[in-house]
Amino acid sequence: MKIATYNVNSINARLPVLLRWLKEATPDIVCLQELKAIQENFPEQAIKDAGYHAIWHGQKSWNGVAILSRNNEPQKVRRALPGDDDDTHSRYIEAHVNGLLIACLYLPNGNPAPGPKFDYKMNWFQRLTTHAAQLLKSGEPVLITGDFNVMPTEKDVYKPERWVDDALFRPEVRAAFKTLVDQGWTDAIRKLYPDETIYTFWDYFRNAYERNAGLRIDHFLLSPQISNRLIAAGVDRQVRGWEKTSDHAPVWIELKD
């Protein structure tokens, strides 16, 4: 089973890129972030014509998450992260798909830091950590994936000395990610590639993609029930080089059935 995560940076603006990648890569399950579309403007028919069922949680101009499945229709569990009824951001969706519980997230950026946006990020991270502990406790096969807006280590960022004050790399953000993983989750990419330089995002500015000046901020966290099923993982880096593409590349894993 091939599962992918992809921050599309506006699903309607990048629809040709998304559809081309779906046709070439044929993932079984896809988690999307940054739809930047209200609920009614999700391109459901185009996704259906590409062979995928979809559930999504949209929001005007910002955020937005979706789960696509080539085989069985995703069975929605929740479309908001627990812990704050006043949080209106569309950043989380959770569903049962093909025997897995899939959590798709778009964690807040948090810049500028310090400040209210950074506080929101850290609060969101704490809510995620609390909920993730409950998911582990359930004993289900769980996969948490998406754009975490965190570079966990210096290995995950080009020229880390330039990012020390950024909300994606501040010590408290990396510590929060480590606390989450240490609950018992497996960072899929690092399990298979512990020492390699791997990026999932390249800025549009300063020829970042051409210079490979990237960040690894899109992650897969696997519960113990599925970590031993992991057989492959990678980044479809070439998609970042396509015309009118997202600043992220799709990231994928393969699990044994």
What structural class is derived from the secondary structure elements?
alpha+beta
Tell me about the largest β-sheet.
6 strands, mixed
How many structural domains?
1
CATH class: Alpha Beta
- Give the amount of beta strand, in percent: 25-35%
- Taking pLDDT < 50 over at least 5 consecutive residues as the criterion, the unreliable ranges are none
Helix content: 10-25%
Mean of all residue-level pLDDT scores? 98
Rg estimate, integer Å: 17 Å
Span of the ends, CA to CA: 6 Å
CATH architecture: 4-Layer Sandwich
CATH superfamily placement: Endonuclease/exonuclease/phosphatase
What count of helical segments does DSSP give?
7
CATH third-level topology: Deoxyribonuclease I, Chain A
Overall strand count? 14
Order of H and E elements: EHEHEEEEEHEHEHEHEEHEE
Question: Which of globular, elongated, flat, extended, rod-shaped describes the shape?
Answer: globular
**Main β-sheet, spatial strand arrangement:** 3-4-2-1-14-13
Highlighted features:
6-stranded mixed beta sheet, 257 residues, 7 helices, Deoxyribonuclease I, Chain A, alpha+beta
Written overview of the protein:
There is one protein chain. Helix 3 links the parallel strand 7 and strand 8. The N and C termini lie close together (6 Å). The protein is built from 7 helices and 14 strands. Helix 3 packs parallel to helix 4. With 257 residues, it is α+β, with helices and mostly antiparallel strands. Helices cover 25% and strands 26% of the residues. 44% of the residues are buried. The radius of gyration is 17 Å and the shape is globular. The longest helix has 23 residues. A 6-stranded mixed beta sheet has the order 3-4-2-1-14-13. Strands 5-6-7-8-12-9 form a 6-stranded mixed beta sheet. The mean pLDDT is 98. The chain has a single domain, classed as Endonuclease/exonuclease/phosphatase (Deoxyribonuclease I, Chain A, 4-Layer Sandwich), CATH 3.60.10.10.
